[in-house]
Amino acid sequence: MIFDSYSFANSFYLWALTALPLLAAWLFWKPQSKRSVLRMSSLKGLQNPSVWVRLYPLLSVLRLFSIALFIIALARPRTSNVSSRTKTTKGIDIVMAIDISSSMLSRDLRPNRLAALKEVAKTFVSDRVNDRIGLIVYAGESYTKTPITSDKAVVTNALSLLDYERGVIDDGTAIGMGLATAVNRLKDSKALSKVIILLTDGVNNAGFVDPTTAAGLAASYGIKTYTIGLGSNGNAMAPIAMKRDGTFRYGLSRVEIDEELLKSIAEQTGGVYFRATDNQRLASIYDEINKLEKTEVEEFTYTTYEEHFRFFILSGLLLLVLEWILRVTVYKSIV
Q1: Bridge partner list, 275
Q2: What is the SS3 assignment for 318?
Q3: Domain boundaries, the chain
Q4: Is there a contact between 181 and 136 (Cβ–Cβ < 8 Å)?
Q5: So what CATH class is 92-294?
Q6: How far apart are CA 99 and CA 95, in angstroms?
Q7: Among 57, 150, 133, 50, which residue's Cα sits nearest to residue 97?
Q8: What tens digit of pLDDT does each residue of 106-158 get?
Q9: Which of 19, 96, 257, 260 is 20 to 30 Å apart from 52, CA to CA?
Q10: Is 180 helix (H, G, I), strand (E, B) or coil?
Q11: SS3 call for 97
């Protein structure tokens, strides 16, 4: 439709268009007594009237169209351009503390625990559009991989490069150290909500910071901690020794996760404990955390209008001028 792209500022004027059929009836069928009459003894000479005589009703059509165009102009047709801007009103700072000990190369998740985690974590980071995210890694000790940043490309790139760092970081599982380092990154944050996602596949067996003490620090700074125990139930193919060429020899090893400790950390800080036994469950856990931690975003919508009534006014005037010219020239002797 021609008016599909238009909105009308004064749409109530459009009701006047309903009167046009009545006006058309009056113009085309008004009483003959109001017209001049020429009496003739014979009509033989008028059997084939000229084309201008046949087009005489065109004058009324032009007038009706001009009136319709003036009515539409009064209704102020316009097109709109809508733009929006979003503003984060409640941002969240998130630190992911990830265990990168040798046991994270176990193959009970495909292709191994660490590789499965990296893919899920990258998706999680991409979904947190309005939040800042940092990355802590730990094994026998811990360090900051990326500080808290809004640059998601930096974090996803760091996740892609995560691996067991033999010779760079001592092997082991220092849960307390990983949690304390994450707390240290978040304690001075000005965000209204601060969250740690702590993932491990073992028990605390290294480091000089007790996990319970680190959890108390997190609670004192109002930092919520979600804990994830990663690993299947029973036994898994895990690194058990190092070969001469520097690669690992794999063998069946019992999966041991200190679930009571992870539950305690989560409960103490107002978070939730999750257990991931396969790839699908790991992905669903990060989806659940994503839904639990909602960022409040305020959207501002701006609408700009472009008025088009001038076109209709000029078109209506043009039709009126055309009608007047026809009346004073071609149809001057007929009217």
Answers
A1: 229
A2: helix
A3: 1-24+50-84+299-335, 92-294
A4: yes
A5: alpha beta
A6: 13
A7: 133
A8: 999 999 999 999 999 999 999 998 899 999 999 999 999 999 999 999 999 99
A9: 19
A10: helix
A11: strand
